[in-house]
Hints:
Layout: H1 8-25, H2 51-71, H3 77-100, H4 114-131, H5 134-154, H6 171-179, H7 200-218, H8 224-246, H9 258-281, H10 289-295, H11 298-314, E1 316-319, E2 322-325, H12 326-334, H13 341-365
Antiparallel strand pairs: 1-2
Helix pairs in contact: 1-2, 1-9, 1-10, 1-11, 1-13, 2-4, 2-7, 2-9, 3-4, 4-7, 5-7, 7-9, 8-9, 10-13
Amino acid sequence: MIPKQRLLSLDVFRGITVAAMILVNNPGNWGHIYPPLEHADWNGCTPTDLVFPSFLFIVGVAIVFAMSSKKEDPSQHHQLILRALKRGAILFLLGLFLALFPSFDFSTVRVFGVLQRIGIVFFLSAFLFVKTNSKTQFYILIFILLLYWALMTLVPVPGVGDPNLGKETNLAAWIDRLIITEQHTWKSAKTWDPEGVLSTLPAIGTGILGMLTGTWIRRKDRTKSEKIAWLFVAGFATAILGQIWGLAFPINKSLWTSSYVLYAGGLAMMMLGFLYWLIDVQGYKKWTPPFVAYGVNAITVFFLSAIIVKIMWRIKVNMKGEEVGLQQWLYDSFFTPWLSDINASLAWAIAFVLFWLLILWPMYRKNIIIKV
């Protein structure tokens, strides 16, 4: 069903992550959400805050498995970089399309977003993978994390004053307003963007952490048991280091702080280690197909699910003499009459995930993988 060169546990991890993305992005009612399915208001980290960094971590791991064989041939490097640039650009443009759809108002379009960040992290991580070895990548990771910490905590903010980590007064927010302007930032914040310019720098660090993990898993001079043991040891140590650093440089997804990179990356490392042990070593694979179906078409389902939600809100249906969006009509007709507000909201999100599984399943069965 899945080509042999793919790491099944990685596809499962990707599938779990994308399904979680769709779950937390599509509650029935944004006013009724269980706390673990919400992002932390600012500092701190909920399970939901671990979803996006897990995906970027997976991007890094996947780069290693996709490019390692061709990297060994220097004559292939130029072609690898061009392909990475093309894929990164496509991801960025898909993100812009999502931001523009359906009104296509370029005057207020959000320039950066989830897919845009994935595209940037993918290209720059792939470039580093092709051009450097794992030791150099490790040093670059440390440099990036320390540089970002120094910029955010030591550099005064123009027009504000002392360095700070406030929502609208930190250096990253100032740079967002300077470069992409308030008209093109995240609409919920208006004066800064959680996927903005400066915070993309440590996000690249998350991709590098994934590449280092992928390189470790592919090593041929270590047994599978050794690989798994060190994934847990390294992941645990990295997460603890992130928590310790978080005492001075708080764990914060919106700022993608260096401590957040280490904490979320360490947990992702342990999660992959567990799945690798369970699936690829122990052979417990019967439960994996639904997640693999999500994992092998991750970008496709993320993109289309966002498009469908926007379309459903544009389709108007008469409900008790009032025009409401199709999604609102479905939610109020089939979920809220039978469940409490918070459970109806969760049930809608779960149903949405299952709806997409019904679409992805036949694609998986026929080995249809839409590559971006």
